[in-house]
């Protein structure tokens, strides 16, 4: 632990956490009431206003918090040890994200391997099928639920395959940008980072197009049984993460243009790049387990 | 930028706490944040405790007298949620905030601003949860485990608020855990190798890993409940190809590591206190570390022992039964080591030690009833009875809560600079000890005789037991007010505490003055 002798920077105090807490509180309260109002078809919409207010507060908080941190970092207050803290913190955060997706992958595997099979009479569940769902036959993708909801099935060829290629390529371009930064080749950095952002946006656009296709042509919707549920929840949360990742990349791009980051001091860039690779790996798992198999 | 740097430099050198209420809102100081966590957890303990008093008042006699069944269900639900997420977990996070940097010789937590954020979102989460009780149709009434379809098809309108408040609690726990784990990995003083860390640090290290691994799974579970209830998905609905049992699998994949999250830091506390008051080194330090890691590892493969009656295949039931029983091996190692530490020690019985001793005995009782519950065939009899309630209250109240009390008494002199009132503290201990057993021990018998949990009424033959239990409950609740009194008295004054008030205590936290200065270990100490 040789690096311990450097002084560890502890900010004296900061208003941003409490602002962030208020923002998050408003978001939770507002989102809760928005959802309840939707269910009850109430239209006064104050829940949504609270939610949007919370989002606004969060945006202010993120700007303020990151501005402080960028200023501190640019003025050389950060030691190597603090850099380690940030990197480790980001790694553990990504680990927590992996576990979040694991819950939904777990639901997918359980539904597919156990729940649907049992409803179809597998194991010692012959009577479940016979008495409760006599017309139901187990199959995956579950294009007809035990309750009788029908839906189409999303193939892997076409849009999903293009998206897979786009995202994998974007992981490489992101890496090239990172290499450029480490070699202090700003041109390479800017170029590849820009390409990565474009690829991220194309992915999101195609994902949106795929949803439209699924809803309009295939009749595959969020409420069309557990196949649609797992499909939309997994790809939807992944899409949210790609959106967040793209936003992070755009912020990195703006900072690169402003001349931020040096070959040895670029935690924010590195964290964004890790996040992007993580999003890519999740997609590969999705492509295999949701689309192909 | 130089002005910014100058300002920061200046701030770095002030050693006095800033004043005014913004100190608490804006703070980045691990001690301030630790204190806020501890006070918040105590307030939640009293709020959750009052709900338990409502439950015990209703159950004082058979029949329905005080509250209607729907409200009773809300009380059991919110009591559980508050005690788990609002009392026990924040108390441990508060202790970690206060003690981990002091124990490893770090100037603060690794990510001080995030530390403040992870605390301050908690009051908002619980405000939302408690507010939902006052909505039309009431708050959550499906038990803290929110099994589907109780939480989906049959729950009240306010469920969305429950979902989002649990999300915030999860975010808070994850951020708190990331902070602890990074602090431990990255901020240890030179020479403080992993195998020299105090066990409280070790147990929290492993707990933080568990938290980061399973809190996101809880977030997934509540999200699926939200979409099942409000957006037409059918994760937990057979008609759509889902399965209510899937909910239980996901929930308990979170839930079982969660119960170890609520006991592993206790093991660390007890492993600090017993050696201190036995004036001996802890017996089997490294086996304690490995046992903690083994318990944490096993906690991921035992979840379905909560679900023996759901009709799983027999092979699964047998696997989960044996995996569960396996946990008693590392737990037994721990209990053995504590007893062996006391063997031929020069023991004195100050209040922290009394609570620690009670912990060892009462937690072991809870462990044994857990072993009984692990046996699949007999679990069919115990499932959803008061036997289960007795079991987890033994491990959580006379286990986790007692260890938190022990920790509070042990470190109060370090926190406040004053010795607490030993006489009052002993009153608190003995009242708590007697009442907690009066409260929870008879529940075993009620459960074995078949009294189901979470029901506001019961058959006449359970009346005597329930009266005893309720009296124990009220007594236990009142006893905690003594604790509040002791803490306030200690914070306001009392005999001056030396840097090391306990003769046999070991660790870096005792090398700094009492009360610990606002900033400690700005230059890391050298650990030999």
TrEMBL record, chain A:
Q: Which GO terms of the molecular function aspect are on file?
A: cytochrome-c oxidase activity
Q: How does it sit in the membrane?
A: Multi-pass membrane protein
In the UniProt record, does the keyword Membrane occur? yes
Fetch the CDD domains from UniProt: Cyt_c_Oxidase_III
Please state every residue range assigned to the domain named Heme-copper oxidase subunit III family profile.
4-293
Q: Name one Pfam family in it.
A: COX3
* Record GO cellular component, one term: plasma membrane
Give the enzyme's main class according to its UniProt record, as a single word.
translocase
Enzyme nomenclature, EC number? 7.1.1.9
Entry keyword Transmembrane helix: yes
Which keywords does this Swiss-Prot/TrEMBL entry list? Membrane, Translocase, Transmembrane, Transmembrane helix
Q: Mind telling me which residue stretches traverse the membrane in this protein?
A: 16-36, 48-66, 92-111, 156-177, 189-206, 226-254, 274-292
| PROSITE patterns per the UniProt record, alphabetical | COX3
Descriptive protein name: cytochrome-c oxidase
From TrEMBL, chain B:
Name the pathway: Energy metabolism; oxidative phosphorylation
Q: What class of enzyme is it?
A: translocase
Catalytic function, reaction form = 4 Fe(II)-[cytochrome c] + O2 + 8 H(+)(in) = 4 Fe(III)-[cytochrome c] + 2 H2O + 4 H(+)(out)
Residues of the Cytochrome oxidase subunit I profile domain? 24-528
GO MF entries? cytochrome-c oxidase activity; heme binding; metal ion binding
**In this entry, which stretches build a coiled coil?**
none
What function is annotated for this protein?
Cytochrome c oxidase is the component of the respiratory chain that catalyzes the reduction of oxygen to water. Subunits 1-3 form the functional core of the enzyme complex. CO I is the catalytic subunit of the enzyme. Electrons originating in cytochrome c are transferred via the copper A center of subunit 2 and heme A of subunit 1 to the bimetallic center formed by heme A3 and copper B.
Q: What family classification does the UniProt entry report for this protein?
A: Belongs to the heme-copper respiratory oxidase family.
The name under which this protein is listed is Cytochrome c oxidase subunit 1
Organism, by scientific name, is: Pseudidiomarina donghaiensis
